[in-house]
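Researcher: We plan to redesign the surface later, but first we want a full-length starting point. C-alpha cells attached.
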C-alpha cells in the first residue's frame, strides 16, 4: 500500500529526518550502511557530494542502481569490505544494526568515521514486558499514520525479533560510543547520534 500523496511511508522512513538533520555542514563523504534500495542514500546525496551505500542484499542493490544518480552502491558486507579507516564524515544506518552483532557494527562505524564526523543510527530492538506502554503507544500511533499515509514495504530481508533489547542497546551505545545521544521513539525505533571527537 502507498500513501495517498504518492510518497512512501513506513516506520523507517518516518525517522529519516533524524539522520538528515545530523549531517554536519561541509560533509563531503557519507556512508549508508544497509542502504537497501537506496532511498536514504539518495536523500543524503542532496547535501553530501560523495555518497556510498553498501548492502548484502543483491536485489536491493540492483534496485538502487536502477535509479539515476552518482551514488556508489556496493554489494558486500559492511563489516569486512575494505573501506579505508576514518574515510567518512557521515555514517548513517537505518534498521540495519540488528542484522549483525551490534557491538561489532558500532565499533566498525566508529572506526570508519573521521574525527569530527557524525554517526547517526535509527534501529530496532526487542521489547520486554516492561516496555508494554511503548508497545501500546506504538500500535496506536502507527495505526493512525498508516490510515493517512499507507505503508510501503521495503524489499530488504527482515530479521525478527531483534536480538538486543532497547535497554541493552542503550547501554551498548554508551560503552562503544561515549557521549552518544540515545533516544527511544514511538514507532518501535531508537536513534543514536554520536559526534566523533576531533
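Model: Full-length starting sequence:
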Amino acid at each position: 500500500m502507498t500513501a495517498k500523496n504518492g510518497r512512501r511511508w513506513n516506520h523507517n522512513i518516518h525517522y529519516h529526518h533524524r539522520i538528515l538533520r545530523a549531517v554536519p555542514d561541509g560533509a563531503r563523504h557519507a556512508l549508508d550502511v544497509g542502504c537497501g534500495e537506496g532511498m536514504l542514500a539518495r536523500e543524503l546525496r542532496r547535501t553530501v557530494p560523495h555518497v556510498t551505500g553498501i548492502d548484502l542484499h543483491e536485489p536491493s542493490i540492483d534496485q538502487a542502481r536502477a535509479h539515476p544518480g552518482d551514488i556508489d552502491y556496493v554489494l558486500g558486507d559492511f563489516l569486512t569490505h575494505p573501506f579505508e579507516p576514518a574515510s567518512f564524515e557521515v555514517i548513517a544506518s537505518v534498521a540495519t544494526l540488528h542484522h549483525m552483532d551490534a557491538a561489532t557494527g558500532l565499533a566498525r562505524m566508529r572506526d570508519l568515521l573521521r574525527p569530527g564526523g557524525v554517526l547517526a543510527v535509527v534501529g530496532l530492538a526487542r521489547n520486554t514486558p516492561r516496555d508494554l506502554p511503548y508497545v501500546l503507544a506504538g500500535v496506536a500511533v502507527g495505526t493512525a499514520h498508516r490510515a493517512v499515509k499507507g505503508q510501503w514495504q521495503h524489499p530488504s530481508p527482515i530479521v525478527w525479533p531483534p536480538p538486543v533489547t532497547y535497554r541493552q542497546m542503550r547501554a551498548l551505545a554508551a560503552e562503544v560510543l561515549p557521549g552518544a545521544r540515545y533516544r527511544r521513539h514511538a514507532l518501535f525505533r531508537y536513534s543514536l547520534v554520536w559526534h566523533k571527537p576531533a
